[in-house]
Amino acid sequence: GELLNDSIGSILQQTLKEIQVICVDDASNDNLTISLLDEFKNLDERVEVITLENNLGAGGARNVGLEHAVGEYVIAFDSDDYAYPQMLETMYIQCENEHLDMSICGSYNVDLNSKGFVSALVFREKEGITSGCFSVRDLGDYALSYWDTAPWNKLVKRSFLNQYGIVFQEIASCNDVYFSIMCALKAERIMYCQNGKPFVEYRMGRKEQISSTRNPVDLIRAFEKIKKDLFEINP
Fold first, then answer.
1. Mean pLDDT, consecutive 10-residue segments, the chain of 235 residues?
2. Other C-beta atoms within 10 Å of 229: how many?
3. Kind and range of the H or E element at 22?
4. b/e for 104-115, b at 16 or more Cβ within 10 A?
């Protein structure tokens, strides 16, 4: 709740105004979260709040959001991160102009305890390929080493997700690994947005973060599902 105001506020203040903001309350018992979501819903007609009766976890909650999405593109944004004002508009324009399945922006990692900059997500580059439109197949045997699994820096065409049935894996942690890697493997047209310029702050240091309690077994489950589904989802 203490970060939700900044997070949702940064989305509502985007220069791209024609957006649908789906807030999935995963059976929260935090009064501040509940009250803030109610305020945002009453403040802005673009906000839709879906309150789940039972906790589904991040993957299940994100899938509920995907089911309610009607826009041409989607992005799964976390409740504690912060988007710079031109993030969505810049990525959207790139997707439209280049007919992309997915646009990917860079990010800054910010430590909540020190309130300071820690690092930046720097994309690996392959000369003559990643500077323009590419697919993972263009990157060779080590293609996935170019890939981060965060969903909050990827604007993805919704019809592309529907075509391949790509959703989030409903496991306790690493639920975004399956989603992001399947997007990478199936997408025909990917671009780094403005060569990886950071448009979002990933906030670190909260003990409640799912990323701070990742279970290695869940990572194994994610790759097992990728292997199983890779040739079954509309090859």
1. 91 98 95 95 97 94 97 94 96 98 93 72 84 92 86 97 95 90 94 92 68 72 86 58
2. 16
3. strand 21-25
4. bbbbbebeeeee
